[in-house]
Amino acid sequence: MLQALNDSIKYIKNKIGDFEPEIGIVLGTGLGGLVNEIEVAHSIMYASIPNFPISTLEFHSGKLIFGTLKGKKVVAMQGRLHFYEGYSMQQITFPIRAMKLLGIQYLFVSNAAGSLNPEFKKGDLMIINDHINLQPESPLRGINNSDFGPRFPDMSQPYQKDLIAKAVKIAEEKNITCHQGVYVSVTGPNLETKAEYKYLRIIGGDAVGMSTVPEVIVANHMSIPVFAISVLTDEGFPEDLKPVSLEEIIETAAKAEPKMTEILSQLISTL
Predict the structure, then answer these.
(1) Which of 55, 117, 139, 180 could form a disulfide with 206 if both were Cys (CB 3.0 to 4.6 A apart)?
(2) Which parts pass through the membrane (predicted)?
(3) CATH at residue 79
(4) 76 pLDDT exceeds 90?
């Protein structure tokens, strides 16, 4: 993997010159609009980067965006990768490794998720303060590269408390409804049954999605402070479960996105 990463980094640096990103951003389903706030310096399609996985979803652009946001140099993944697309965990998290080698000091992650908590409604935001990993394997499975991090990385604080506190304050000042909670990561791509939603709530979940945790594990492995936020696009309440379509999820994400963008932009400006 290290050789593959080096080849990717060599190609990217040839395209971006002396641009050195401080912050990495992963944009989830229906949440690519933050790119509009970035003063774009460079844009590279995943498909053109050697060894870089390609997003197979029609609603994920598949671009690395380099530019300035609130005075900070950022690199944003416009379109993430998922285990259900057929990639390995190492491939899913390859871009996070690459961003670390490009110099990022913080990682900001967004996603669209289903609410498990009856107090968290569709269209609300949820800052992730912990997670439960129900993905079938870890992205750290296999021989450990000690240049990246330890064999057994600590996960007692996967989400940076100071960043969470700042984000909560920003949401309050902007009068944005923003909860805190536990994100459960599952394989997908199917949504959950009534019994599964009930189970996920019983074990401590406030929201459920199909991403984020692999990236967060790898970021923690490399000692990158993480902030993560979910847009709650549907409600998984077993007693009143209604069918939901991808179109509805994307529409809800798009409506809530300006609130998420406001929090992320203001949070980035404080770093």
Answers:
(1) 117
(2) none
(3) 3.40.50.1580
(4) yes
